[in-house]
């Protein structure tokens, strides 16, 4: 892996990474695989001296130094959370920087878009929100499926993978010392959809949930199990299995963050002809893959900004060719 950022081309797109958790580390790793990009700096709310980047010579700054760095950053990639960080940071920073975020609270995307768009239009920047794989790559495939097969139905399955939101909810249950939750598509449902029949599937029929829990000292296992499987919005509508394990097993077997899923469009072009489109992801690391998507969209954002396409954008507004480091001529010759 190329970790020395000083040998990048002069024309490299200069990326600022805002936040350095799992996603921020993934962005640093992804930039190492993209020779047309360089890291201008990592910006953190923590003490910059305490933060150790993966790469040699990658500068770390406090987030307060961003306003003074406008002339050394082409695109910011925001790696904070959708609950508290991005609703505040994205509009604030879009007034001064072109940026990409991974805002993933589906129901609040319209209001997030409006806030970021006002800031980006005023600042003449290009700000792309909700990049990643869902929202992001899965969204594109849902749109394509509907457009290509208007007479049809779209199905999205997630997993097998570790769900961060559900794992957080699980850890808040009294008596739980630690734990993770995996979302698992129900095979029969996936097979039914792939076969071309268009089933009506309930929430319970599409996914099941599997929990691995470390009990707190003196906690009652059955009470904890009941609290989990009856939890509204998270577990009550699913077949949920709870396994009790020890802290060593949790650390050894459940430290990775795999994920993935499918988008399937099942439709008909005539009564006799069924057509099925499928897009599938199988990820060893959810944050590293999400980061790789953000980095490709940062390249597109830079190009759109240079072309004067200001305001808030989503993945629906970006031509695929803009994601590639290759020129339009190279793409036509090699990939068309």
Question: Describe it for me?
Answer:
By secondary structure, the protein is an alpha/beta fold. α1 (22-32) packs across α10 (286-306) and α2 runs parallel beside α3. The protein is built from eleven helices and 14 strands. The protein has a seven-stranded parallel β-sheet, with helices on both faces. Strands 8-9-10-11 form a four-stranded mixed β-sheet. The chain is globular and about 60 Å long. The mean pLDDT is 96.
By DSSP (H or I, 4+ residues per run), the number of helices equals: 11
Overall form: globular
Structural class: alpha/beta
Helix/strand order, N-terminal first: EHEEEHEHEHEEHEHHEHEHEEHEH
DSSP E strands, number: 14
Helix amount, in percent?
25-40%
Radius of gyration: 22 Å
The average pLDDT value, as a whole number, equals 96
β-strand amount? 15-25%
Quote the distance from N terminus to C terminus: 29 Å
Main sheet overview? 7 strands, parallel
Strand order of the largest sheet: 3-2-1-4-5-6-14
Poorly predicted ranges: none
Keywords:
7-stranded parallel β-sheet, alpha/beta, globular, 11 helices, 336 residues, 4-stranded mixed β-sheet, 14 strands
